[in-house]
Each structure stands twice: as C-alpha cells, then as structure tokens.
Amino acid sequence: MDYQAILNVIEKEFSPTEDMGNVAAYIPELSKVNPLKFGVYLFCQDGSSFEFGDSQEKFSIQSVSKVFTLTIAKELLGKDLWKRVNVEPSGTPFNSLTELERESGIPRNPFINAGSIVVADALLSVLDNPKRDLLKFVRKLCGDDDIHYDEAVARSEKKNGYRNKALVNYMKALGNIDNDTDEILDFYFYQCSIAMNCDQLSKAFMLYANEGKHFQTQEKVIDRQSVKRINSIMQTCGFYDEAGEFSFRVGLPGKSGVGGGIVAVHPEKYSVAVWSPMLNEKGNSALGMKVLERLTTLTGFSIF
Ligand code: GLN
Description:
Elements: H1 3-13, E1 39-44, E2 49-53, E3 59-60, H2 65-77, H3 98-102, H4 113-126, H5 130-142, E4 148-149, H6 151-160, H7 162-173, H8 181-193, E5 194-196, H9 198-204, H10 206-209, H11 224-237, H12 243-250, E6 254-256, E7 261-266, E8 270-275, H13 286-299
This protein binds glutamine.
Residues 62-63, 94-95, 113, 157, 164, 192, 257-258, 283 line the site of glutamine.
C-alpha cells in the first residue's frame, strides 16, 4: 500500500477553511487556537510512517485522553470497573446529564464525560499520584518524554467546567463517586489538558493496532482481550452521538477530542492521527472526519 501517495492525494484535496466549524470556545484557552491548523500522521505496524502539515505541532488532546485513563483503569481494576460504568453508546452529547437520572448515576460508557469522570475517580482510589502515573504511561507508549500537561488549559477548564461539576456532583449524590469531587475534577481537567502532536498520538495508539504491544520495543503492555474491548468501545462510543456516523463513514475504531484531534486504528495495519481544530455541532473535528473517510476509501479497506 502506497500510503505516501494516498496522503499526497488527501493533502491536495482538503485544505481547511474557516467555514468548516468552530473551535471549542467553551474552554476559553482552546478558543485561542488557530482554526486553520491541519496535520496528519500515519504510523504502520512495520515501523514506516507518513505525514503532512502541522503533524509535529502539539495541541490539547482533550477526550482522546479518555482512552489512556480507561486502559490504565482496566488493567488495575479488571471487571470491577464495569459495575460503575457501562459500555453502551449514549446517543447523547459528550457532556449530557440526562441518562444519569434514569440510570442511577451509572454512565453509559467511559468515553462520555460522566464515564471518564468515574474512571478518574477509580484511578484516584488506586494510584498514589494519578497525574504523575498517567503522564508516565503516555510517555512510555510514545517512547517520548516530551509530553506534558498544559496548565493554562487545565486552569481554564477548571474555571469554566460547570457541566462537569454538575456531572460529578450528581453522580456523588447517586452513590457512584468515592473521592472528593474537586480532586476528581482536578485530575480529569489535567488529563484532558495533555498536549501531544499527531506523531506522538499515532505512536501511542499503536498499542490498539499492534495487539497490545509497544510500537517500538514490541513489549506487551496490555493483552489482546483488552485491545478487543477498548477498540470495541471506541467503535461504538468514541464519537458520542456521532459514533454511528463515524463508523458508517470511516469504518475504524477511533476517538476524538474537542481540541480537534482524532485518532483511529486499523488493527494489525496502522494508527492514524488527524488534527483540525474546527468542530462540527457534535464536537468532533469536521475536517478530521472527512480526511479519515477519504483515507479508508482510498486504501480500499476498513475493519468491515
Ligand atoms: N475536557 C472536555 C470536557 O470535559 C473534553 C470533552 C471532549 O473532548 N469531547 O468538556
């Protein structure tokens, strides 16, 4: 497969224009990002890589971090985690409160905010220093220590994250939160603030495309069953109330964040990260979705 030729076609066909969507203004710090940034990085299982545009510039990974925290929590807690968070698509926006009322404070899945806040709570209960351990895990997956929290983004969200405050308090009232709500949100906002580039993200996500093994050392980090489960949740829940649409158009498991990043994996083939900060009305990168749809059309294969 000539991935370079395919990326060349995509680079020619798509260029960002300001009418493609809006940057995430509800986190003021994110509204400062240049909407016209655009980068792609594709890493293959054989070690080859292809890229164009702003693929080396870091951005806020936001909800893409939910995959990393879920991976750690699943390793540490095993089946107990599923008593507190389900694995069903929500069909509602990522920050929705509505199902919690009907479903006794058990979030639909770990990739909506409520679910990831429960995962953050679970990690707080078992790790001495969750912020340090999360960063260590992500750095290890990328083989790169130059990955950090963006304090300004974390502070900006802490100041304005009223919906997340509502979610954690509501779940606390319904008995599904153990730790102090401020401490949980502090960790949650920090996890979302991690800054990474497309290069680093695609390498980290090789874990889910390479049978749970590190992209470089081939060391086994998680088992194949964990890969199956996490990829399944990405496939059905990775894009909130647009998960069906992403699956229909792209045909790969993936995860988005309101920083405009999307990472998708083709198991046993490649991992690909796209960044374009202009979001559609569902909070997913509009151009990112188009690019990935074109990628699986041009390669002629998806997981289906
Ligand atoms: N930090 C963001 C929030 O909680 C993450 C949302 C997202 O990326 N979809 O609202």
